[in-house]
Amino acid sequence: MTVRKAVIPAAGFGTRFLPATKAVPKEMLPIVDKPTIQYIAEEAIKAGITELLIVTSRGKEALMNHFDKAFELEAVLERDGKEEMLKAVREVSDKIDVHFIRQQEQKGLGHAVLYAKSFVAGEPFAVMLGDDVVVSEKPCIGQLIEQYEKYGSTILGVQKVGMEHVSKYGIVDAHSVGERVYKLQGMVEKPKMEEAPSDMAVLGRYIITPAVFDCLEKTPKGAGGEIQLTDALVMLAETEDIYAYDFEGKRYDIGNKQGFLQATVDFALSRPDLRSDFMKFLKQTVKNL
Q1: Contact 60/12 with Cβ under 8 angstroms?
Q2: Most-buried pick from 195, 276, 278, 285 (CB within 10 A)?
Q3: What residues are paired with 52 via a beta bridge?
Q4: Among 156, 135, 131, which residue's Cα sits nearest to residue 249?
Q5: Rg (CA), the chain
Q6: Measured between alpha carbons, how far is 66 from 52 in angstroms, rounded to an integer?
Q7: What is the DSSP string of 46-73?
Q8: Which residues fall within 8 angstroms of residue 244, CB to CB, at 6 or more apart?
Q9: DSSP character for 146?
Q10: What is the helix (H) or strand (E) element at residue 247, kind and residue range?
Q11: 98: enclosing H helix or E strand
């Protein structure tokens, strides 16, 4: 079955970016001139995803507004002949159906994904975390979809992060079964360095079979007192094979300030309209340090 639906959990408070996120959802913070969540949506579109569910929470109406039609703005841009701006405003809304559901309580990533059960309607689906932006020739989630079509099982997007960083991620215990492909033997959520089975971390991209919902409904609270998607996937692995794919591309952890700043600089330097002047500014800044 073709993967045509994706879920973006976006209910968190974004406390690491306070006070900016007191009134503005962290997913709306821009990398240059585009909200971070739009990069995720565009990745889904390029991979052939046709329906998107964003799991939100109270106070995140700006997300709904961003993906909605802006008739007055579009009319003004069209009247003034600003075709490029008009295209940018319509970039996502014309290409994918976006749905929203509000998570009543924030009980963890697994709990947020559980809200997608009726939306998924028995189909395999993608989960794309907004804290991870991946730049790659082939969309990251598209790489995982290709592996799903080959193996017909849940696929986790992974990369090596170094042992010093394993406590930040879900870490897989897996053995190689092909080029960049691993078969899962186990997984641990945010382990201590000495307890980590590897330094291969799940980095915000998943293709998951609908059987995970039965597991999520049985999953007790885990790390941090939350319902962890990792724990549900470990349970799922008892009844079906799960694979990990070492995806190609540069991944930015924009859930922290350092990663966000790095993404902003790299994305600006990749823009022909910004690169030259911005490069001069950076060189002068470094020189003056």
Answers
A1: no
A2: 278
A3: 6, 98
A4: 135
A5: 20
A6: 14
A7: HTT--EEEEEE-TT-HHHHHHHS--HHH
A8: 155, 156, 157, 158, 172, 174, 181, 182, 183, 184, 200, 202
A9: H
A10: none
A11: strand 97-102
Single-letter code of the amino acid located at 58: R
- For the purposes of burial, counting CB atoms within 10 Å of the CB of 29, is it exposed (0-12), middle (13-18) or buried (19 or more)? middle
Q: Token pair for residue 153?
A: 């099982």
Distance from C-alpha of 36 to C-alpha of 34, rounded to nearest angstrom: 6
Sign of the CA dihedral running 63, 65, 66, 68: positive
- Alpha carbon of residue 181 to chain centroid: 20
pLDDT bucket at 105, cuts 50 / 70 / 90: confident
Question: Are 174 and 182 within 8 A, CB to CB?
Answer: yes
Percent of the chain with pLDDT over 90: 65
Beta-carbon contacts of residue 130 (< 8 Å; ≥ 6 apart) = 8, 9, 10, 26, 27, 36, 37, 40, 204, 254
Q: Residue 12 carries which DSSP code?
A: -
Beta bridge partners of 252: 133
Closest CA to 257 of 20, 5, 3, 7: 20
Q: Would you place residue 58 in the very low, low, confident or very high pLDDT band (cuts 50, 70, 90)?
A: confident
Q: Are 44 and 126 in contact (CB under 8 A)?
A: yes
Q: Which helix (H) or strand (E) holds 35?
A: strand 34-35
Residue 251's beta-bridge partner residues? 134
